[in-house]
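Session log. Operator J.P. requested a structure for one protein chain; no other inputs attached. Running the standard single-chain path with token output.
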Amino acid sequence: MNKNKYDTYKFGLVTASAFVIANMIGTGVFTSLGFQLLATTNFVSILLLWLFGGVIALCGALVYGELGAAMPRSGGEYHYLREIYHPILGFMAGWASLIVGFAAPVALASMALSNYLAGVFPVLDPMWVAIVVLALVTLVHAYDVKMGGAVQRYFTFFKILVILGFIICGFVLPTYKQDLSASFSTFSPDDIFSTGFAVSLVWVYYAYSGWNASAYMANEIRDPQRTIPRSLFLSTLIVTVLYILLNTVFMLSTPVDAMTGQVEVGLIAAQHIFGTTLGNFIGMLVALLLVSSISSMVFLGPRVSQVMGEDTYILRALSRKNSKGIPTVAIWVQFFISLLLIITNSFEMVTKYTGITLSFFAMLTVAGVFVHRKRFPDAPRPYKTWGYPVVPCIFIILILWSIVYLVREDYVSTFVRKTQPVMWMSLMSLLTLLTGAVLYIWNQKIVNRRKNSMITKKLYVAWATFLCVGMTACSQKSTTESPDVDALIASADSIAEETVPVVAQNRPVANTELTDAARFVAGIPVKDESSKLYETTQKTDWQNHSRKMDQIWNTYQQIAPEVAAFSGNELSDINKRCTTLFYPFGGPDFLFSNTFFPEMDTYFLIGLEPAGTPIRVKDPSHGTYKLYQDAVSSILNWSFFRTKDMRVELTNDTIDGTLPIISLLLVRSGREIVDARNCRLTTEGEIVYENEDGTPINRRTHMAEVKYFQPGTDRLQTLYYLSTDLSNAGFPTNEGLKAYLNKLDPTQTATFIKSASYLMHHNHFSGIRDAIHAHSSAVMQDDSGIPLPKYDPDLWNISLYGAFTKPIPLFYEHAQPELREAYENGNPKPLNFRIGYSRESNLLVARKK
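Structure written below.
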């Protein structure tokens, strides 16, 4: 395990797998066989049920592995459905997880444990035993993640050992085994399609539920893109084998009549295998095994609730963490829901209700892999579903088949057999979905109302101030002198300008030609419908390009809220203080520089790629569109440019450098372009737009300038891109760049370094490295930037984010033991998005003292 945010720990493959196994091997396998035997007593059918359950879980695990690797954030179905379909579906899934996904199974496991112990010690009150166990486990996880992880690993290993011992003894010890040979001759394939088989499959699926456990705790896992798929597959395979063997032992050792309809089948089987006394002891061990299941779900459930709280205003209390990063509010909310379900003591109904509700959302999630691949074809997929598309189809068909039969059984029990007054299971599931949808809509209305209320209050404050200023001015004037009304209005307007957006009189005006050209290559409809560009947008090639760009851009939209939140929470002081962002080695990456540092007046980007000229759209071909798609995809999917490839690609009649890419990113980010032109730096560090002989620059230079603004504001921002060599062979002789940097106010300048190929780890880049330290009041970088030992602790305060263990293999020589030690011994904060080369992303923010 690696130390992580808030003094917590990140789990590796072993602990992640332990959570999955513990979450799966729980109440279901030790209780559900008794209810399955009510529908079928055929041994072959029972084994097929458990095999089918294993196939369903394995297919689901393979699909969840892809989704978890592509979207590594805690939350499980809540996060996946939110990103794939719509936030309301994600919220409904999260709400169901809060109510039945974890709280109900925790209650069921606690009740099963109490039933086992009560079978051994009849004096115990089952309800109070369940409550005490639940409270103790909750206290452990509410105290410390490290302790909770250790408890989980040890209990899981103990659970596997006990089950293996139970299986071996079940095959070896009984002198009399049940005769199951008749089951083979009486079994018919038609039994598989019977109502009883389908309904029993729900019990089995409930026993396997938990195969997706590590998807719920992605933020707590080290290298989630790699660890989640492996943990899901490995754990599900192990559990499937154990389940089939364990149920074979149950059927071989114990008469069917003794187990039919009973909850504590493990205790009954143990008494037949070991005798009453030793069997009771084994029953106690089985009860202890359930502690592992309770522990796993007590840990996992609040992680879903926590993510919901981060995204939902009315549930924001669930996102609160203690000093160790533990979502304590979510943990105790789940505790009280489980407590209520324990008090109701309705085992069978809660199990069916849990099974059908979770099955529905799991089916939607697995179907989502088709949607995700369609909507985000260029999203990074470190792992892809094995057997796609057959594997997800198998899962969907089996789950849908089971749900349909379960609802049919509920209908028959209500209206045909009349054994229940209403379709309780279907009604409870439907109410869960509807209440989740209602809560989501309610939350949206509250958020919108608060936004409108804040604007109204700010307007009220502004004009109230205007009235106060007016009255004061009037009282100070003589009776013959009227107040300066224009000055008062200007005063009120200046106050209002600080509080609410206002319509400025002198806003920048967009250059329609430049903006539409950028919109065209960005795949956005142009505004001038009379232009040739508009005619071209009606062609199939451009429309296909537009759809492709939308799909690529969706990759950024998935992480943009996380990056913006990081900027607001961790970089607000830098954004308020600084006016210039220096971005060496950044190439044309306007996107991340702007998302991290949106408030800068000036952005100065440097790369090796040529600056180019403003976009010239002649007769674009499919190949031209493909160049733009690849260039943007490179930034969005990998957050860096492939410099070597870009030098070759940026050389046709439409793309002759980085300026067209920058323009594309600007309009895709909602900006409008005022001007774009080539320029140059004089040896005095001045930016000029004419040649040395005084003639206007009308050719490509090494430098370009773009002025732009965001519609609805009157703030003009400027971006410069300079193509130059920053090594010691180029930077020391670049008098213009050195003079420009010397003109900057260091207290108002920040530097951003990302995906810099570890160049400043070498002495032949010492010049630019020293210049950054000299001319910056803050530096933000990933591990490829300036080595940690180069930051003098007497001059810089360092903040670490994310995780670092080692660089990618391409840069293996830059192991940076000092940085690794700082992460291990420090207190790095979380980083919930990928940036830079490595899947295990990190950022260092240095502020000058």
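Operator note: The CA atoms of residues 530 and 536 lie 11 Å apart.
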